[in-house]
Amino acid sequence: MSAAMMKLGCFLEGTGHHVAAWRDPDVDPHGRQTLAHYLDSARLAERGKFDLLFMADTNATFGADDVDSWTRTTAASRLEPITLLAAMAGATERIGLVATATTTYFEPFHVARFFASLDQISGGRAGWNLVTSLAVAEAYNFGRETHPHHGDRYARAREFAKVVLGLWDSWEDGAVIADKATGIYLDRSKLHFLNHKGKHFSVRGPLTVHRSAQGHPVIVQAGQSEDGRDLAGETAEVTFTVQQDLDAAKAFYADIKHRAQAYGRPPHAIKVMPGVMTVIGQTRGEAADKYERLQALLSPELAIKDLSSYFGFDLADYPLDGPVPDPSPTIEQKGRVKMMVELARRENMTIRQLYRRVYGQRGHRVVIGTPGEVADALELWFRAGAADGFNLLPLTFPRGLEDIVDLLIPELQRRGLFRKEYEGKTLRENLGLPVPENRWALERAQKNVG
Ligand SMILES: Cc1cc2nc3c(=O)[nH]c(=O)nc-3n(C[C@H](O)[C@H](O)[C@H](O)COP(=O)(O)O)c2cc1C
User: Fold this and answer.
1) CATH 3.20.20.30 spans which residues of the chain?
2) Is the CB of 92 inside a 6 Å radius of any atom of ligand 1?
3) Cβ atoms of residues 253 and 221 within 8 Å
4) Is the pLDDT of residue 422 over 70?
5) Above 70 in pLDDT, residue 293?
């Protein structure tokens, strides 16, 4: 039972999280590549007192690697998130700024520097969502014909995270002296080389970015597999997850907290935040209409193509109103497809029923109703120990986010479940996470005690 308040993330998207959101009459289909859209959404989310804005990313098109899908969805259109978050840092003051960067197609020095710089210019509000990349298509943009195997990706990711954390400790607090009289700019004893030599990386350092107001950016992850969960237990401070069922979500929550403790970390050092697409109306009927209007725009053909990219074979070869077959044993995305198959088995779904449930929102749970009903659904999981908070996926932008900020959040605040004012200035202060100690400062302090 969590005494603390819920933590809320706003999963920022160009037009909305429903795959047909761009066709909603209230949505600007060109918003996904205009700065104004993101600045307006960031200010709106900050007015709602969200803990963080989250931007997903792949260095390729999203979802099924299929040109036909690109012509009829927004999958091929995506601005680079760190660039956008830097702009949003200037338009906001308290909300956290979290973006994805892959450990498979970046170098650790790049990622350490991008997020440390975002952390510095935002006054300590940055977070890095560590992923190993789902999209096989990313390989084609980085001189490869194949995507590395799941286990190899996570082995590289483990060392990658260590190097990034090491680089973030390059500068201790107070390293910059800037004494114009003596001409001494920095205290040499507080700037450190990393000199990392490992299986995947050799990185000398130091990083060029000073220590931020929150020490270093918050590490976020979203792995669902054994490897993914274990890396989260060791390094993540927030973990996003796709969960459709309360018992499965409670099991995931307990598992992640247990893994953190196995690495000597207290359970509150990692926040578990399942994704939820919220569809809110003054009445349940109004909310259901909003959702069904977009569901009616779903293309069965594109849905089958998308699901097939998860199952590892063409589901079009199976009867649409027949049972959901087992996925190919060779598939990559173990976590997400496992959740889909469990859902289909639990509710005895046909392929058509499954795609109608998951395709619109990429497998995330959907909660539809009045502000009170949606708040009930979130409160149930929060009090049941299935979540420390939620990564909310607005159906559309801006309307779906406005409904959350003006209808749902006041209801959560009325119930004492969500903040009315930010607790602090940094992402860590608002998430209730400690400022990590600098390893060199710690070493010096221990030597002085010795
Ligand atoms: C909320 C959420 C956001 C995610 N964002 C990204 C992303 O931006 N880019 C990406 O390549 N994968 C993303 N993923 C996928 C995960 O990083 C991970 O690969 C996936 O959950 C499968 O888990 P596994 O890697 O442990 O098999 C996301 C997953 C979730 C649940």
Assistant:
1) 7-144+215-296+373-434
2) no
3) no
4) yes
5) yes
- Distance (angstroms) between ligand 1 centre and the Cα of 168 equals 24
Q: Is the CB of 214 under 6 A from ligand 1?
A: no
- pLDDT score, position 245: 92
Q: Are 118 and 89 in contact (CB under 8 A)?
A: yes
CATH architecture designation of domain 7-144+215-296+373-434 = Alpha-Beta Barrel (3.20)
* Any atom of ligand 1 within 6 Å of the Cβ of 275: yes
pLDDT reported for residue 334: 63
What is the Å distance from ligand 1's center to 172 Cα?
32
Q: Which of 8, 55, 129, 255 to mutate to test the pocket of ligand 1 (most atoms within 8 A of CB)?
A: 129
Name the pTM for this structure.
0.95
Kindly indicate the confidence band of residue 65, based on its pLDDT and cuts at 50, 70 and 90. Answer: confident
CA distance 297 to 393: 19
Q: Is the CB of 205 under 6 A from ligand 1?
A: no
CB 256, CB 239: distance < 8 Å: yes
| pLDDT reading at 1 higher than 50 | no
- Calpha distance 111→131 (Å, rounded): 12
* Residue 349 token pair: 């779904």
